[in-house]
Structure formats: C-alpha cells, structure tokens
Amino acid sequence: MLIPPILKLITLLIKNDFSIIPLVDNLWYPFCVIRGMDYKTIKYPDGQISVEITDFDGPIKKRINSYEDLIGIVSAGEVLRHQGKSCDLFIPCLLGQRSDRRFGQDQSFDLKVIAGLINSGGFGNVSILDPHSDVALALIDRSTKVSSYQYVAQAYAEEGSPTLVSPDAGAYKKVFEYGQKLGAPVVAAVKHRDKDGKIDLSFIGDVAGQKCLIVDDLADGGYTFVLLAEALRRQGAIRVALYVTHA
Fold it and tell me: What is the pLDDT of residue 134?
C-alpha cells in the first residue's frame, strides 16, 4: 500500500515524541482549485486525456500529483477559452516547485516546463499558496503569492505562543517576518553538512525552557525535521511542533 508522504512524516514524528500540527487542508494532499467550474476528465486506453466542462457554477478541487493532473487542468482552461469564458486559478501546492533552477546542463528545468503548461491554459489570475521561491511567480503569467501567515498564526495560537524556529537560511526571511507580526521570538537553525553527508545543527538564539514551532513551506520525508527536533530538545526545548504548508 502506498503511504502518502505526510503520513510517513507523522509516523516519524510520533516515534520521536515530536508533535505536528495538521492545520492546512492541503497539508494532507496537494490539490488545485479552479474557481467557477466543474469538469470531468476522460482517460482513453492509449493514455490520452480529454476534458469536458459539465458545470460552470461552483469550484472544483483537484490534487495536482502528476503531469496527468496538470494536463487535465490546462485542458479545462482550453475549453473555457473556446467557450469565450475566463477562469482564475488557485494553486494550494505547485507541482515541481523545488525544481526552480536547472541543476545540470543535461537536465530539464522542470518548474519552467510546468509553468509553460499552466500559462498555456490561458487562465486569468493565478494565485499560489506559499510558493517555495519567487521563481514560480516570475515564470507563471499573472501570478501572485498567497501568504501562509494566517495558518502559521493559527498554529502559533494553538501552541500557546511558542518561539518560532527557522529550519534553514532559505526560510529565515519569512519566519522572521511572521515573528515580527506575531510579536514572537525567532530562533534560526544553522545546518552544516560534512563531506560524508552527515548533518550537524546549531542555533542562533536560546530555546531552553521554551515551546518551539518550526515553520517551513515543504516537507518530504521529514528526516531533517526529526533531526531538528532532537537538536532543539538537547538545547532544552520543552515542546517542539511543526508547521508546513505543503507535504
């Protein structure tokens, strides 16, 4: 049986006495909402994907787990253009957002390919929840970022005003901004990886005797978060919780 990544993550966290806050609907699975329409997808034996618009009165939610899902959404956009209608797109979790650059000269720039497909759908405004980097906004036409602040604020309140923890340098700017809005202290984790790939963690700030909330946008296997939680415990944190927007 295939286990969704977030369930694997939760299992890891439970084994390590590490609590997680599943606050955002799309924490469980990435999905996509096209406002103002319903459609059905037809898949033919040869793999061809065809879309038929069945109702233009109400939103549709669809997880984007694959290029097949993406093609279905883009095809729906093509139908609407043919009908002379327009539609905005809201993406709670963008497929391939980690691949925001070309990792080698012989390797495809995957986010650019995905953005090109989304652009071909001819959508009006494209809203993306908590994108991993601003590269997505540069590549996708008429796109805007939707902040995760309201969800982090909910986690912060439910955890009893903890110290916010930035898990790496890439997350620090956003976590610091959220900390200022919430009036919360922020601790930054500094990650060092040796030549053998072993991770060593240190912190800028004190967590002794404090509750901590790690804030990040993406979780895959969860191993680094487990290491981070263990390191925070060793530094004296009395509770460690995790917020992620996409898993």
Answer: 93
